[in-house]
Design a protein that fits this description.
single chain; 140 residues; alpha+beta; Thiol Ester Dehydrase, Chain A; six-stranded antiparallel sheet; 19% helix; HotDog_dom_sf; hydrolase; fatty acyl-CoA hydrolase activity
């Protein structure tokens, strides 16, 4: 169980769904990204971590239940799977307005130097803040 879980709401927008009222599966990624951005804005950066470039190296989604026009706003729980030297894993659990889990998205993000196009180590402060939300023990 994580030490902390960050939770936020993400609106299901009118244009997110098809003619049958189902949200397109690709939007699960967008909902996860929006929650991740809010997590960094609300928890990581206010702790003193300086915003720098990062890239998504891997993304995996398990679709458990369709999201419909009536499902929103969805709630996204964000927790950290692991913290490495230059990368970290984030879990996004997407629930509908009734609390039913619709999908689970896991992402691996890497700190990135845009000039050299290589990974860079996570600052110790960022590692510490991310570890507060870790499900598993931090990897050194």
């Amino acid at each position: 169980m994580p030490n902390k879980v960050y939770t936020c709401e993400v609106e299901v927008r009118w244009g997110d769904s098809d003619r049958l009222g189902h949200v397109n599966n690709t939007l699960f990624l967008e909902y996860a990204q929006e929650a991740r951005v809010k997590f960094f804005r609300d928890r990581v950066f206010p702790a003193g971590v300086r915003p720098t470039a990062m890239v998504v190296r891997k993304m995996e989604i398990e679709f458990l239940k369709p999201i419909t026009d009536e499902s929103g706003p969805v709630t996204v729980d964000v927790s950290v799977l692991a913290v490495g030297t230059s990368s970290f894993g984030i879990r996004h659990v997407i629930r509908d307005v009734h609390g039913v889990t619709c999908g689970v998205a896991d992402a691996v993000l890497v700190r990135f130097d845009v000039k050299t196009e290589t990974s860079v180590p996570l600052p110790e402060l960022e590692r510490s803040v991310l570890s507060e939300y870790a499900i598993t023990e931090t990897v050194r």
